[in-house]
Design brief:
alpha/beta; 420 residues; 4-stranded mixed β-sheet; 26% strand; globular; 13 helices
Length: 420
């Protein structure tokens, strides 16, 4: 499956909504399967990655059923041993399940070729210190055997919400307290949802401390995914005269780095936020001249998934934009440093890879450049980022079936605004 995008014939204007947040959707399903009672979820992302998590909890003996569009009920139950669980392309499914399974049930986790190549040692090591038993590794397939776990202190060296979540889920089934110390704050959907479900969890400085205890079911409303909304924010920012309003989008401060960066680059953005356990609201973006910036340090975990599309914004900005401290990009669904730089170069932009990021030298007046063919390497965020670039230049993106992992309606939304 491929996608051809022609330059937008007019500014992008109107209102839109994006699918439910992928990170929250995974956690709502998985935590619901651990909870007492039935968790009622509305706004669930029904992309391939989240469907892999749903299939996993079913295999473990829990009921998960749809009761309407993007509405699901998940009923917790004592987990039973499962055979092979296919995590597909979903690193979140695999890593969170490693922690959730360790004190509760046995299973063999596997995935597609891309997921088999992604690092799992960062999760296996702290769980192993807690007493977890694994066969295989360091990559998938990995067999988990149920064991009695002991709480420990984990001094993390890599900023990873998935590692944090895996350790906390294991800690909920371990003897004694488990402390996870973050080097840099990462997305906090796990802490927010576990706390709402009654977990014995507290924060002390940079440490999250959890002890064994049950979770209680509740009603969860999943806001729109800011990572999906980021594509339209950049689209409006790079197409002159655009004025897009994105409704009901998640505005968790650990995830809104993309907004901060676009404002710093000169985009006109207005945010109307609603205070809630998971903040959400409306974001209005209008097109205008962009300027280069530097993106590094503690900002990186707040926008790691948005770097490919921010690199597209940087390509149309005045000056040299530097992305640093982002070596994690190398071990995503693709090597996103390499795939982003390759895509930008195919479009005629000046970009270089660095060990921990990339440099993009912008060409603000690039509207006259000829279209090109881009390969996504099976990475949904690369495919969508360069589809957005096509709204200025025209582009043909190969292998776009991967977009269904996180944004099944992307193609139809794109068609509303351009000749896709």
């Amino acid at each position: 499956m491929s996608l051809t995008v022609r330059p937008a014939p007019h500014p992008l204007r109107g209102r839109l909504r994006v699918p439910g947040d992928k990170s929250i959707s995974h956690r709502a399903v998985l935590f619901g399967a651990l909870a007492r009672g039935t968790t009622r979820i509305t706004g669930l992302l029904e992309g391939d990655d989240v469907l892999a998590t749903i299939a996993a909890v079913r295999a473990l003996g829990c009921d998960a059923s749809t009761v309407g569009p993007q509405s699901w009920h998940v009923t917790g139950a004592p987990w039973r041993d499962a055979g092979r669980i296919d995590c597909g392309n979903s690193g979140t499914t695999a890593r969170l399940l490693l922690g959730a399974l360790a004190p509760r049930a046995g299973a063999t986790l596997d995935g597609d070729t891309s997921l088999r190549g992604r690092p799992m040692r960062r999760v296996l090591d702290p769980l192993g210190r807690m007493g977890a038993a694994f066969t295989g590794g360091p990559g998938l397939p990995i067999t988990v055997d149920k064991r009695r776990l002991n709480g420990i202190t984990v001094e993390a060296t890599v900023a990873s919400a998935q590692v944090k979540s895996a350790v906390l889920l294991a800690g909920l089934g371990a003897e004694g307290e488990t402390s996870y110390v973050e080097p840099v704050a990462t997305r906090d959907h796990t802490e927010r949802l576990l706390t709402a479900m009654g977990a014995p969890l507290r924060r002390e400085g940079n440490a999250l401390i959890v002890s064994a205890g049950p979770l209680d079911a509740l009603a969860i409303t999943v806001p729109g995914d800011v990572s999906s909304a980021a594509f339209w924010m950049v689209a409006a920012a790079i197409v002159p005269g655009s004025d897009l309003v994105i409704e009901n989008v998640g505005l968790n401060p650990t995830r809104t780095g993309v907004i901060d960066v676009l404002v710093r680059m000169g985009a006109s953005i207005e945010v109307d936020a609603v205070d809630a356990p998971e903040p959400y609201g409306t974001v209005r973006v209008r097109g205008g001249a962009l300027r280069a910036t530097r993106i590094d340090g503690p900002l990186i975990p707040r926008l790691i998934d948005e770097i490919p599309v921010l690199a597209v914004a940087a390509a149309f900005a005045d000056g040299e934009t530097i992305f640093a401290d982002a070596a994690e990009l190398r071990v995503k669904e693709s090597d996103r440093v390499a795939t982003t730089v390759a895509g930008l170069r195919a479009l005629g932009f000046d970009a270089d890879a660095r060990p921990d990021g990339l440099v993009v030298r912008g060409a603000p007046d690039a509207a006259a450049r000829s279209s090109a063919s881009i390969e996504s390497a099976g990475d949904h965020r690369i495919a969508m980022a360069f589809a957005i670039a096509g709204l200025r230049l025209g582009v043909h993106v190969g292998d776009t079936a991967c977009i269904a992992t996180s944004y099944p309606s992307f193609h139809s939304t794109l068609a509303r605004f351009a000749g896709a």
